[in-house]
């Protein structure tokens, strides 16, 4: 049995929908004080209302130092501190290299990678007061392991998160703060709305388990990395993809 995390405080960035929303709801269900962060206050508060009385919604742009300071201040004001950060904020607009602009590239790197750095930096003083802390980064298989046309900027940001994670884990280990990452594969979220049944079927066909993952699959992995039982794990990744990265070719799946 895992030790309960009830009463601890978690900040979840990018939590208004998709994986972030799933993480926030899972942590709240486990009894944690949950700070739901989104650029939209209305959307953050809607998720917080769904999460329950021990959750609040906060509007913050976590690609800026001011936004990250504001979310931490809100957590401290309402719950007295911060124990866990789930750095989940991210976007994935598609743009092929020939058409990608500098603004396109900078926007993705700022939202996905710079926000990870700024969020972690912002929670450090509060975690140091606690004498320990947990940071869980939502990375991806795209970038660190795989590639996909149109997502070179996204892949760079997700690979960059893991480079950041490894050095941050070393620096923060003496403070009893762990830094780990979850790497989702194809997950069923609102982002797939409108893609069509054929597109989704093609995605499922590429996965040995023959199904898309759920946001709960990612949230459960994040909850484990935030647990007391994961205290001796730092600088590591958990791939949650139903075996998607395992086949060396489509022939490997056909051989099943």
Summarize the structure.
The chain is α/β, with parallel strands linked by helices.
Main β-sheet description: 7 strands, parallel
Q: Count all strands and give the number.
A: 7
Report the principal-axis shape.
Answer: globular
Relative helix content: 40-55%
Strand content: 5-15%
CATH T-level topology: Rossmann fold
* CATH superfamily membership: NAD(P)-binding Rossmann-like Domain
Low-confidence stretches: none
Biggest sheet, strands in spatial order?
A: 3-2-1-4-5-6-7
Order of helices and strands: EHEHEHEHEHEHHEH
Structural class: alpha/beta
Name the CATH architecture.
Answer: 3-Layer(aba) Sandwich
CATH class: Alpha Beta
Comma- or semicolon-separated keywords:
Rossmann fold, alpha/beta, 256 residues, seven-stranded parallel β-sheet
How would you sum up this structure, described in words?
The protein is globular, with a radius of gyration of 18 Å. With 256 residues, the protein is of the alpha/beta class. It has helices spanning 18-29, 41-51, 65-79, 102-130, 152-172, 197-205, 215-225, 250-254; strands spanning 9-12, 33-38, 55-59, 84-87, 133-138, 177-184, 237-240. The protein has one domain (9-240): NAD(P)-binding Rossmann-like Domain (Rossmann fold, 3-Layer(aba) Sandwich). A seven-stranded parallel sheet has the order 3-2-1-4-5-6-7, sandwiched between helices. The protein is built from eight helices and seven strands.
């Amino acid at each position: 049995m895992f030790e309960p995390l009830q009463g601890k405080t978690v900040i979840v960035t990018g939590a208004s929908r998709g994986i972030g929303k799933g993480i926030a709801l899972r942590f709240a269900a486990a009894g944690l004080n949950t700070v739901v962060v989104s650029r939209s206050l209305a959307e953050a508060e809607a998720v917080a209302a769904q999460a329950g009385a021990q959750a609040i919604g906060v509007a913050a742009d976590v690609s800026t130092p001011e936004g990250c300071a504001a979310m931490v201040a809100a957590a401290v004001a309402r719950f007295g501190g911060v124990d866990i950060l789930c750095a989940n904020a991210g976007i994935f607009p598609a743009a092929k290299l020939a058409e990608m602009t500098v603004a396109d590239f900078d926007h993705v790197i700022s939202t996905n990678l710079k926000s990870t750095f700024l969020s972690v930096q912002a929670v450090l003083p509060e975690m140091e007061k606690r004498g320990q802390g947990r940071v869980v980064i939502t990375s991806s298989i795209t970038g660190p392991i795989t590639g996909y046309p149109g997502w070179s900027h996204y892949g760079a940001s997700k690979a960059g998160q893991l480079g950041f994670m490894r050095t941050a884990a070393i620096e923060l280990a003496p403070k009893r703060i762990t830094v780990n990452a979850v790497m989702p594969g194809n997950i069923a979220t609102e982002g797939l709305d409108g893609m069509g049944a054929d597109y989704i079927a093609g995605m499922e066909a590429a996965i040995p388990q023959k199904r898309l993952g759920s946001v709960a699959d990612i949230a459960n992995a994040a909850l484990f990395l935030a647990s007391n039982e994961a205290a001796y794990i730092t600088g590591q990744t958990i791939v949650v993809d139903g075996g998607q990265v395992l086949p060396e070719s489509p022939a490997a799946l056909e051989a099943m």
